[in-house]
């Protein structure tokens, strides 16, 4: 099964007709939430999101930045174990509603393939328990010659879902597209765009480059290539969550819908505020 969605729902208000999650869920069955990356969210947020979406809707939740080595400075928890405990606890409403597709651990460009970081991944997987967790690298060393197969075998043994990327090939701070499913049930595919000049922000003195990093519109030829890739991946995994993250220029939603059309996929969720006939009789 192929499930399509976007990174965030407010970026695309002009395209899908509103910035509410309930309005977004009419168009796509999954969404990636980034707010959890910047701060461990209160449970009430997840409870609200669960209530605003159809029963079969799913969330890809990004791991808190303190858990992936992105955080500058100290995290606001007693220790690392407490940080993981707080993060996992916050997800309770999504878990109870069966709407947590996976937690995405996206590691930074300086997270190299070495023994220390392999141990960090094992620690993380142990702390996350039985929750579905996806792994995305940003340092090319994990897929270098001689390491690619070892990395994939490690992910398979440890139970990591592979987050397969389509992104610019910008040296060590990017990874190639590796079309290999490491989990029999779930695979994640993320479209970051191919804006090579805007990817690393080299030579920029401020953070404005982040606004254009994901500025990219996939061509129909590029999407046709991915149609073939996704059909091939389906042979190795039951469900593939496809997230478009090329959102700087509002290209994510149109690209997602274009690829859905190429694959013959139609989705129409419940309209916002729609009352279920049988629920109204209870």
From TrEMBL:
Pfam family, one: DUF72
Alphabetized InterPro entries for the sequence: DUF72, UPF0759_sf
Top-level lineage group: Bacteria
PANTHER family in the record: UNCHARACTERIZED PROTEIN YECE (PTHR30348), UPF0759 PROTEIN YUNF (PTHR30348:SF13)
Name the UniProt record assigns to this protein: DUF72 domain-containing protein
């Amino acid at each position: 099964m192929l499930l399509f969605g976007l990174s965030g729902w407010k970026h695309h208000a002009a395209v899908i007709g509103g910035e509410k999650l309930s309005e977004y869920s009419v168009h796509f069955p999954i969404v990636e939430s980034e707010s959890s990356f910047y701060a461990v969210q209160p449970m009430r947020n997840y409870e609200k999101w669960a209530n605003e979406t159809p029963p079969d809707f799913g969330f890809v939740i990004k791991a808190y930045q303190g858990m992936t080595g992105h955080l500058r400075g100290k995290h606001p928890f007693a220790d690392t174990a407490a940080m993981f405990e707080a993060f996992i606890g916050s997800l309770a409403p999504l878990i109870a509603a069966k709407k947590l597709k996976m937690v995405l651990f996206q590691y930074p460009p300086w997270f190299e393939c070495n023994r220390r970081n392999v141990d960090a991944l094992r620690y993380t997987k142990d702390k996350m328990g039985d929750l579905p967790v996806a792994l995305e690298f940003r340092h090319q060393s994990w897929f270098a010659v001689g390491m690619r197969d070892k990395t994939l075998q490690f992910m398979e043994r440890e139970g990591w879902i592979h987050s397969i990327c389509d992104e610019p090939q910008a040296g060590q701070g990017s990874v190639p597209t590796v079309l290999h499913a490491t989990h029999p049930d779930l695979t994640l595919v993320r479209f970051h765009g191919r804006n090579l000049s805007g990817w690393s922000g080299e030579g920029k003195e401020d953070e404005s480059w982040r606004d254009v990093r994901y500025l990219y519109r996939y061509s129909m030829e590029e999407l046709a290539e991915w149609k073939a890739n996704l059909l091939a991946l389906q042979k190795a995994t039951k469900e593939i969550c496809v997230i478009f993250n090329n959102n700087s220029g509002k290209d994510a939603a149109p690209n997602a819908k274009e690829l859905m059309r190429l694959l013959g996929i139609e989705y129409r969720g419940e309209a916002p505020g729609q009352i279920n006939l049988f629920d109204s009789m209870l």
